[in-house]
Amino acid sequence: MIMKIKRYDYAQQFGADIEQLLEAIRSMLLSGDYILTSEVKQFETEFSDYIGSTHVLGVNSGTDALILALMALGIGRGDEVITQANTFYATVAAICFVGAKPVLVDALEDSFLIDESQIESAITARTKAIIPVHLFGKATPMKRILAIAQQYSLFVVEDAAQSHGAKIDGQAVGTFGDVGCFSFHPSKNFAAAGDAGAVVTNNSELAERVRIIRSLGQREQNQHVALGLNSKLDAIQSRILSWKLPQLDSWNSARRRVAQIYRDQLADQPIEFQEHNQDNEHVYHLLQIRTENRDRLLAHLVRDGIDVTIRYPTPIHLQDAFTDQGWSRGQFPVAEKLAKELLCLPIRPDMLTQEIGYVCNSIKRFFGATPK
Ligand SMILES: *Cc1c(COP(=O)(O)O)cnc(C)c1O
What we know:
- Helix content is 38%, strand content 14%.
- It is built from 13 helices and 14 strands.
- The chain has helices at residues 10-14, 18-31, 38-51, 62-72, 89-97, 119-122, 143-151, 204-214, 235-244, 248-265, 294-303, 333-341, 353-369, and strands at residues 55-59, 80-84, 101-105, 127-130, 155-159, 167-168, 171-172, 179-183, 197-201, 218-220, 223-224, 272-273, 287-290, 342-345.
- The strands form 4 sheets. The protein has a 7-stranded mixed beta sheet with strand order 1-9-8-5-4-2-3, sandwiched between helices. A 3-stranded antiparallel beta sheet has the order 12-13-14.
- It is globular.
- The two termini are 26 Å apart.
- Residues 61-63, 87-88, 90-91, 133, 159, 161-162, 183, 185, 195, 197 line the site of pyridoxal-5'-phosphate.
């Protein structure tokens, strides 16, 4: 019997008492007060308590969070920013948008995170910042990156778009560097009902600059003191995010439980998982498995009704958008290998043991039938 195994269940996230939320949204619609309302300020305060950062500025999207963070740090033409070749497009697009040059380093085989040992040799006199990406929900170890940044006077901008609530020794990612960037895109662990994002920082001056830049460069109305964008977190999205935030930790724990069941049930299969050390370091935005038979396994799982996907099939240096950067095939071999071998299994906080078992059995059947 074919089961349908979904990657998302949004209705589940709102809970049974959704009427209360709809009533709040109804009053918001009728009030006519829409921009940077008390709901936005309330969510910013709640998220700052949750993440453990002094300032939270809600913006349009995770992509804008990165762009605004780089602008606020004064990074632009003539500057270089280091990040990893296996990240999502937006990390690198943001660097290009402010006029800076992205400098890539490769990823690590086991953690799929930035290879810290390659950072120093990528630093030049023009380097201004490092953007480690807490990819797939796993916290990047920050000690060495912070030490390198201090030694060379570089900013650290954390791309935490996939890792809300992931922690290293109790400290949430996004709070280690000068600034952290979050996305609340519907695909993320912590999802608005549309595009949304936030910049977090403990630096008051930087926070003030982001506040100005997100509001068309205005310090106060009609007083435009800088070149800005219009990128403010929407009030209704803020209300929705406040509605969901109290559940985020339990959802992340549930994701870890699901991941552990997958790991246990598939332990004897010819696949690898992303390295996992400390308990809270991973919030499993994506559950990646790695196999050389990726494309055939994907087709097999799709035939069995399982919503699997590939993140990301083309590494940054081979994307058409970046051809003018002069990168070439073979330059970042680990990122290229991961792009060919990683497959995302469905993972949801509300996933039933029976559903996980169905996916695992399908994988076992695949490998039973096709010797590696
Ligand atoms: C989703 C994502 C972004 C961009 O966030 P949006 O809200 O979609 O603009 C940036 N970086 C990473 C790693 C992401 O996963």
